[in-house]
Automatic annotation (TrEMBL):
<keyword id="KW-0812">Transmembrane</keyword>
<keyword id="KW-0472">Membrane</keyword>
<dbReference type="GO" id="GO:0005886">
    <property type="term" value="C:plasma membrane"/>
</dbReference>
<keyword id="KW-0297">G-protein coupled receptor</keyword>
<dbReference type="InterPro" id="IPR000276">
    <property type="entry name" value="GPCR_Rhodpsn"/>
</dbReference>
<feature type="transmembrane region" description="Helical">
    <location>
        <begin position="204"/>
        <end position="222"/>
    </location>
</feature>
<keyword id="KW-1003">Cell membrane</keyword>
<dbReference type="Pfam" id="PF00001">
    <property type="entry name" value="7tm_1"/>
</dbReference>
<feature type="transmembrane region" description="Helical">
    <location>
        <begin position="6"/>
        <end position="21"/>
    </location>
</feature>
<keyword id="KW-1133">Transmembrane helix</keyword>
<feature type="transmembrane region" description="Helical">
    <location>
        <begin position="33"/>
        <end position="50"/>
    </location>
</feature>
<keyword id="KW-0807">Transducer</keyword>
<protein>
    <recommendedName>
        <fullName>G-protein coupled receptors family 1 profile domain-containing protein</fullName>
    </recommendedName>
</protein>
<dbReference type="InterPro" id="IPR017452">
    <property type="entry name" value="GPCR_Rhodpsn_7TM"/>
</dbReference>
<feature type="transmembrane region" description="Helical">
    <location>
        <begin position="70"/>
        <end position="91"/>
    </location>
</feature>
<dbReference type="InterPro" id="IPR013312">
    <property type="entry name" value="GPR40-rel_orph"/>
</dbReference>
<dbReference type="GO" id="GO:0070542">
    <property type="term" value="P:response to fatty acid"/>
</dbReference>
Length: 256
């Protein structure tokens, strides 16, 4: 899965990045371009670490322990960064449809850049707290002859990680999911009642609903594992399998 995702995600995101950069050079930078650019960067950062993830899956962790927290930081910051920027894109679409005149006044790239900085800062701040649970072990644990990065934790680490995972899932996924769902459903309602041509309606509705579907399918299982893990007071075994759907976002998001 990781190899397949790497082979699809790398060219897809590079192509989308090229298209948006070219669009910005020709027509100027818009909020949608800024958010899409950050979304591509988040996906490419994730793609860059997928070969290591693939090797770890089959052979265990072979790199120095110091690389593990760096690897985990980029991996999870990419995932949650993608969540937030999908939400930003969806909110922009909703505002442009629901309040076109008012939104046009504030539709400046500078504001979008500031929002992007705030979103990245929010992700980085949350993930930095995860290092508190490290306690000098670099998150590398050994089970038998196989070493694992960020896979097995002791009770003192779980005491910090489980509440932190729950808080991260609420702030960085469930709240954005509520916002994304609301904006998408409002877009669907407004477009359906509009006087657009049927072809135009279908196009807008397809993009809006596809974005929401990708958001839910890719990120819901992994974040649900955080909620279940907090309730059961353990790092659930199926969490690593739930990660597979989150990884798939790197080739699904460029499509929508």
């Amino acid at each position: 899965v990781y190899t397949f995702t790497f082979l699809l995600g790398l060219p897809a995101n590079l192509l989308v990045l090229f298209v948006y950069v070219r669009k910005a050079c020709k027509r100027g930078t818009t909020p949608n371009v800024v958010y899409a650019f950050n979304l591509c960067l988040a996906n490419l950062a994730l793609v860059a670490w997928l070969p290591i993830k693939a090797v770890e899956t089959f052979r265990g962790w072979k790199l120095p322990p110091l690389v593990c927290p760096i690897y985990s930081f980029f991996l999870f910051s990419s995932l949650y960064g993608s969540c937030l920027f999908i939400t930003a894109v969806t909110v922009g679409r909703y505002l442009s449809i629901a309040f076109p005149i008012i939104y046009k006044r504030y539709r400046h790239a500078r504001i979008s850049c500031l929002i992007s900085i705030v979103l990245w800062a929010l992700v980085i701040l949350h993930l930095s707290f995860a290092l508190v649970a490290e306690q000098g072990a670099y998150f590398v644990s050994t089970s038998g002859v196989t070493s694992t990065c960020y896979g097995i934790f002791n009770e003192s680490q779980l005491a910090v990680l489980l509440p932190l995972r729950l808080e991260m899932s609420i702030v960085l996924f469930f709240l954005p999911l509520i916002v994304t769902s609301f904006c998408t459903l409002r877009c669907v309602t407004l477009v359906w009642r509009s006087h657009l041509q049927p072809m135009g309606k279908r196009r807008v509705l397809t993009v809006a609903l596809s974005t929401l579907a990708v958001f839910v399918v890719c990120y819901a299982p992994y974040n649900a594992s955080h909620v279940v893990g907090f309730v059961l007071e353990q790092s659930v075994e199926w969490r690593r399998y739930a990660m597979l759907t989150s990884i798939c976002n790197v080739f699904l998001e460029p499509v929508v």
